[in-house]
């Protein structure tokens, strides 16, 4: 080491020589770590076309062990689905974690499940095309699943039961939805499904769920290993007295129905139908409509001349 | 008394230094408490007994020259202080990483070789941000990377939708439909002087214009920046439907030159059977138009699928419009000019053209 040739001094002017060498010397894991942060789309469309060494890194399965397709633009569901499949292909069965927003469908889930039986973490949010049956079917092929999120998607209690039975290793379940204040629509389907089939659960998030005290008790019975329980906006609950005590004594972190939502990643606007403003059926008037504009534009693009903004219509 | 004891201990600790040799041969020393951040240094000290004196300095990995080592020391010295708030740390980090990309890369590499994970994360994150959203040429220039791929390799896109018959079909359908609509418009103008389109379309337009001015869709560049903002995602289905729809409209309005005309045209083209009859005049395609855009090459299965998608969308739309109808009641009139373009005027009183 003492006699090694001095590496170029890191001042800007002296960097010109041996430039290419420096980037090539970067361990591929590091390049991979940098490029991975660009997200699936940019990796496929840009990064892999920059130069040879980057292309190699971008094609490597290690780049595709975790796929995050949440923060998308407006290039259309078809495109995103295609890209997702491509990404899954590149993972060559090594996919461990996948996170999708908006565009996932039953067939995509099936595709993922067929090729990635080692999947540990599956997260889908606001994917309106996904059905309970589709989800159940896909998850039945993912026995090693530990982490499941199905927020703002339609998933029945029956489906959750089947999922619980398919995935004995499930440790985290997040099933969030819009909180309803009124009318007091009660439903313990999710709670009971969880209680019956997910004994290993450590982390449970049921934001906006309509469970009652009975449902919560069932969960406490059925999931003795719970460490983290998020019950924000579960307005049918009456978390007092013995029930409260039961929660607090066993579970490390409990988020109560009326707790602050400042750290909640989704829109926490409550659906409060009995409000005096009758037009405000969907709580629209109080919401800053544009604060999350990134996520609206599924199928539109105003700057790609090949792409038709009205594709959705057809 | 405990205070002075602590002071003594601190001084003692400060006095023990670990000696290292950077890749360019310079002998440096670092405080023991800092050295503890580096697993490899700890190992050398504990298992090989080196580093405790100038003559037995630990050789640092080849990525760590004197300048970079000095930077890393600064970083560690700042962050090892326990009392600092997250805000302070973040602020320091932001200032710390202000250097050119090559230096940054060197630093990332060095931090990686020393297994200093927080610094690796920071530098990688910053490098990613440097690359993010930039076109190929610019990336190569900034980072001084060779352009050594074959033409074929460069054209390995996903966007090459020519491969997918489904997408190809859709594109063709669209193009044909639009041509059809333009035809119809032109024909209609020959027959009719003025045509007023009312009601739901108006609601929609007024929603766009009369409503929140921020609703206007921004350009791609801006959108990329928005990606970096804190994410808050709209949750309710109904809400999303509304925004989907009116944003589609604003796209139509702002991105196309014939903007409004296209909007009106495409709205007419869409068959949305579930909507109440008052909207039929807008949404039901004119007689004869259907023949116009039945493409011989579309297979019926595909057409069914597309129709189903449209219906589904309409259903979402319909359910949402029931809710949002109350939002804006100012009617907006569309009138066709003689040459096929439309004029839009906001009509504050009801009833006249």
From TrEMBL, chain A:
PROSITE patterns: FBOX (PS50181). Residues 20-67 form the F-box domain. SUPFAM superfamilies: F-box domain (SSF81383), RNI-like (SSF52047). InterPro entries: F-box-like_dom_sf, F-box_dom, Leu-rich_rpt_Cys-con_subtyp, LRR_dom_sf. It holds the Pfam family F-box-like. This is F-box domain-containing protein.
UniProtKB/TrEMBL annotation, chain B:
It holds the Pfam family Skp1. It comes from the Eukaryota. Transmembrane segments: none annotated. SMART domains: Skp1. Residues 217-231 have a biased composition (Basic residues). Pathway: Protein modification; protein ubiquitination. Residues 215-294, 324-353 are annotated as: Disordered. Residues 117-155 form the SKP1 component dimerisation domain. InterPro entries: SKP1, SKP1-like, SKP1-like_dim_sf, SKP1/BTB/POZ_sf, Skp1_comp_dimer. Residues 255-266 have a biased composition (Polar residues). One of its GO terms (biological process) is ubiquitin-dependent protein catabolic process. Keywords: Ubl conjugation pathway. Residues 237-252 have a biased composition (Basic and acidic residues). Belongs to the SKP1 family. This is SKP1 component dimerisation domain-containing protein. It comes from Brassica carinata (Ethiopian mustard).
